[in-house]
Amino acid sequence: MAARKPFVGGNWKMNLHTAEAHALARSVATSCDGREVDVAIFPAFPYLAEVGTVLQGQPQPGVMLGAQDVYHQSNGAFTGEVSVTMLQDLNVTVVLAGHSERRHVLGESDLLVNAKVRAALKAGLEVILCIGETLEQREAGQTDAVNAAQLCYGLAGVDPAQMSRVTIAYEPVWAIGTGRTATPQDAQDAHKAARGMLGHLFGATIAEATRIQYGGSVKAANAAELFAQPDIDGGLIGGASLKAEEFIGIVEAASNATVKG
Ligand code: PGA
């Protein structure tokens, strides 16, 4: 059975401008080289080219360039949207789909998230599909049901052979940007249930091989405890990815975690 190499993503969201993005990308690229962990950074669209140049300029480019979103149509009259091939032109290799800010702030439906997942996979990109419950849903005992539904909708029509390019990010909405992290046990329970759902959808072998990141107020100080859980395979990091030292500390915690699967 394939081992699950830890994977850490830095989601910069709508932050940083040229000079800061350049400097942060350079620090991450030079510090994360050669570690036993996959690393991706997700700048805002206008800085993908700049950050891509920094990453490509490293002696051994190891940090992947990611986009925070993508549109599923290949071209045409879709004002403001960015296609898969445009991202590939800039050497983007991984995209986020269904981040909770896109679902809850911008109103993206499961149907749209699924269209994006399928379009990105069809073009050969890697995808991080984000799932997670709101506070109300958690308090109503619906955490696993919400995650299961988002997995079913998000991955509908995905070919089992494409699953090697899919990572799941479990990000409880109430933990994102709030400083309130899920306990390692709560996160582990949700990850285990999500992996169970992947088993129903794609079978045990694929479920065991699929990486599930945790996201929601991860910092260098709490990363090791979270990443030590048997079903947590790294993290998707927001706020703490904007500070080189914090992010590198989190990557280090992931590289020290035991390989799972
Ligand atoms: P946070 O964001 O680390 O700031 O909580 C995580 C995310 O939204 O991916």
Characteristics:
TIM Barrel; 11 helices; 261 residues; globular; binds 2-phosphoglycolic acid; alpha/beta; 8 strands; eight-stranded parallel β-barrel
Order of strands across the widest beta sheet?
Answer: 1-2-3-4-5-6-7-8
The major β-sheet equals: 8 strands, parallel, barrel
Number of domains: 1
Radius of gyration: 17 Å
| Structural class determined from secondary elements | alpha/beta
Number of helices: 11
Distance from first to last alpha carbon: 7 Å
Q: Explain this structure to me?
A:
- The longest helix is centred in the last third of the chain and has 19 residues, at 184-202.
- This protein has one domain (7-240): Aldolase class I (TIM Barrel, Alpha-Beta Barrel).
- 43% of the residues lie in helices and 15% in strands.
- Strands 1-2-3-4-5-6-7-8 form an 8-stranded parallel barrel, surrounded by 7 helices.
- The chain starts with 6 loop residues before the first strand and ends in a 5-residue tail after the last helix.
- The protein is globular and about 45 Å long.
- The mean pLDDT is 95.
- It contains 11 helices and 8 strands.
- Helix 10 (220-227) runs parallel beside helix 11.
- Strand 3, helix 3 (84-89) and strand 4 form a beta-alpha-beta unit.
- With 261 residues, it is α/β, with parallel strands linked by helices.
- The protein has helices at residues 18-32, 48-56, 84-89, 100-104, 110-122, 135-139, 143-154, 184-202, 204-209, 220-227, 244-256, and strands at residues 7-11, 38-42, 63-67, 94-97, 126-131, 166-170, 211-215, 234-237.
- 2-phosphoglycolic acid (PGA) binds next to strand 8.
- The site of 2-phosphoglycolic acid has 13 residues, from strand 8.
